[in-house]
Design a protein that fits this description.
With 660 residues, the chain is of the alpha+beta class. It contains 24 helices and 22 strands. The strands form five sheets. Strands 12, 13, 14, 15, 16, 17 and 18 form a seven-stranded antiparallel beta sheet that branches. A five-stranded mixed beta sheet has the order 2-11-10-3-9. The N and C termini lie far apart (60 Å).
Length: 660
């Protein structure tokens, strides 16, 4: 490659890797698989090795990981929490062995599975857990002690009261917990985490420790970072010591001396990985002697005495036999691929989502084609595209009517999803009940997705109104309820009757009516009767409601099914009055848009703050926008605000405006 071409490619790879670094480490929403990311990084390093004069201090190859998020207090790591050099073949493992043998006579190594989770540090002072922190960029992490303490397998106090012990481990979410969490999020119409590692990272960064506790995270410890008051000679000895102190250490660590033994262990671990209750993405090989490690040392980025063998993603080619359709809570009609069963990540797979019609059309997918499938993150089945068109494949188009109730299917302008227009469609009912009871809506404690589904399946709840007809005796007749738990649920249901009207409107699943727009309706019309008496023109006059949205809301509220539901809820004692809980009217009439990462608040926290002072938060910038609150990495919304001459403020200015 010519130097000029190399310079261009380095620039492209740097931009791409920095983008995916942020998606993975900061936003917890990775868009590509690890194997794809590793391939990009290897390409960058290869070019930089050929042209070392082009290496920039800001190159992704020159840093260990992503920058820490700003929501937590920073923790400086006394010992760098570095990454490992990745290898992808047995020949590279042999190369590593030969390099070690150049410096060490008759070396021994430990081989252990590489847990796919979130690396963290546990710092003990005089035997008591003092600080738990994330890896961050390897030098500076985040203080997550309050969430670390919710992990039952982490000892809060140790038998040995050493002055200092810092342990490194990998926090992970068991597969069974991930499956259950994904099901609950889907039933609540929330976007599920992509894989257990992503879920563990998001859970450990929760500000509310009760949420982290509910996610049932776990940990495997695999290294001593620092220790005072005791010495060790080998890695295996440190693991044995950690086990004696009550730590849950890496599940298997085998001592080997030859590359053949390394290869055998890698194959054994690889063959068993899909049967494990947790995810692993590779195998770690480490020099066992701590003195020999010290002598060999590290590069600026990775230790020379260890490598991580990474497993490639498993992909299979299979025949697409049919495309079925599912209907969700909001009426979204989703195509699902049905194909010849293949084994992926240790399980039999025969179905995977195709997302929408655009996804199918863009990839030219036809029934009868040979398609490539894999499990995203070894968990969620997905179709990558057509591996081999048959030439006789049948073109698929989503239906014009709902496959469950027969109502007209509609596709709103600007949306990729096709939706059933019938709000009483049976396919939507359960998901609607679950959402009605959820925190953003009526917030009925104890009526989560699992409990709601159980009550629905046994016929006790068939509509949202039925929630308020349940009695203690009804619950006691079901398995899993004692008198106290039954009374607690009924009390929570009774309390929800006193909720402000905006929560009720949000929970009913009216199209285009979320928490913010429900409050706008309530502030304008005061109570349910006022809203029901309003015309489409009256609703469109509300700042923030366009004519199309107003028409949709008006027509939804006029539907016989909706009117019947509202009448039933009022008869059952559910409040139809709006109670403005705003702390002040300082921001009344002001429209805000939030973009980028704020220094101390998440976007939903900033939105709640603005709304608590009677302001309105919108998702897009328009001429009606008064303020754009911009944080780090603000994108197109900031650009549009500047083009329109809208005032751009930061978090501190927002707080000052409210304080004034």
């Amino acid at each position: 490659m010519e130097k000029q071409a190399a310079e261009r490619r380095i620039s492209e790879l740097t931009e791409l890797l920095n983008y995916h670094n942020r998606k993975y480490y900061v936003e917890d929403s990775p868009e590509i698989e690890d194997y794809e990311y590793d391939s990009l990084m290897r390409e960058l390093r290869a070019i930089e090795a050929e042209y070392p004069e082009l290496i920039s201090p800001a190159s992704p190859s020159q840093r260990v990981g992503g920058a820490p998020v700003s929501a937590f207090k920073k923790v400086n790591h006394a010992v760098q929490m570095g990454s490992l050099q990745d290898v992808f073949s047995f020949s590279e493992v042999e190369d590593f062995y030969r390099r070690i043998c150049e410096s060490v006579e008759d070396p021994s190594f430990t081989v252990e599975p590489k847990i796919d989770g979130l690396s963290c540090s546990l710092e003990y002072h005089n035997g008591v857990l003092a600080v738990g922190s994330t890896r961050g960029d390897g030098f500076v992490g985040e203080d997550v002690t309050h969430n670390i303490k919710t992990i039952g397998s982490i000892p809060l106090e140790l038998p040995d009261k050493l002055p200092l012990l810092e342990v490194r481990g990998e926090v992970y979410m068991p597969k069974s917990v991930f499956y259950k969490l994904s099901e609950e999020m889907e039933l609540n119409s929330e976007t599920p985490f992509k894989n257990p590692r992503n879920a563990a990272a998001g859970s450990l960064r929760q500000k509310d420790p009760t949420i982290a506790a509910s996610r049932r995270l776990d940990i495997f410890c695999f290294n001593i970072q620092r220790v005072e008051g005791r010495g060790f000679t080998s890695h295996r000895e440190t693991l044995d010591y950690l086990k004696s102190q009550g730590f849950k250490v890496i599940p298997r660590y085998t001592l080997v001396r030859t590359p053949e033994e390394m290869e055998r262990c890698i194959k054994e671990i690889g063959d068993s990985r899909f049967d494990l209750p947790y995810d692993i993405d590779g195998v770690v090989i480490k020099l066992d002697s701590l003195a020999e490690r010290e002598a060999i040392g590290s590069t600026a980025k990775v230790p020379r005495w260890a490598v991580a063998y990474k497993f490639p993603p498993e992909e299979k080619v299979t025949r697409l036999n049919n495309i079925e359709v599912n209907v969700g809570r909001t009426g979204a009609i989703t195509p699902v691929a049905v194909f010849d069963t293949v084994t992926l990540a240790g399980t039999s797979v025969s179905r995977a989502t195709l997302h929408n019609q655009d996804f199918i059309d863009e990839r030219g997918i036809k029934i009868g084609d040979m398609i490539t499938v894999r499990k995203a993150g070894d968990i969620i089945p997905e179709v990558l595209g057509v591996a081999q068109p048959t030439g006789e494949g049948e073109t698929f188009m989503l239906p014009d009517t709902c496959p469950v109730c027969g109502a007209k299917a509609v596709r709103d302008e600007g949306e990729s999803a096709l939706r059933c227009s019938n709000i009483s469609c049976p396919a939507q009912v359960l998901r609607r009940i679950i959402y009605f009871a959820s925190k953003p809506a009526m917030n009925i404690d104890g009526l989560g997705p699992e409990k709601a589904k159980a009550l629905y399946d046994c016929g006790l709840i068939k509509t949202v109104s039925d929630i308020y007809r349940i009695t203690v005796d009804d619950l006691l007749s079901l398995e899993g309820y004692k008198k106290k738990s039954a009374e607690n649920l009924i009390n929570a249901i009774e309390r929800s009757k006193e909720n402000s009207l905006d929560r009720l409107l949000c929970g009913l699943g009216i199209k285009n009516v979320g928490a913010a727009s429900a409050k706008l309706l309530c502030r304008r019309f005061g109570n349910l009767d006022g809203i029901l008496s309003a015309t489409a023109e009256d609703i469109a006059a509300i700042d923030g409601f366009g004519e199309l949205t107003a028409k949709t809301v008006y027509e939804s509220l006029k539907e016989p099914h909706m009117r019947r539901t509202l009448d039933e809820l009022r008869d059952l004692g559910v409040s139809a009055e709006y109670r403005n809980t705003a702390k002040s009217d300082k921001l009344v009439g002001k429209i805000f848009v939030i973009t980028g990462t704020l220094p101390t608040m998440k976007r939903d926290e900033a939105q709640a703050l603005i709304e608590s002072h009677s302001g309105t938060v919108k998702s897009s910038v328009s001429k009606k926008t008064d303020f754009v609150v911009a944080g780090d990495d603000a994108g197109s919304k900031l650009t549009k605000a500047r083009e329109l001459g809208i005032r751009v403020i930061d978090e501190s200015t927002l707080l000052s405006i409210i304080e004034e």
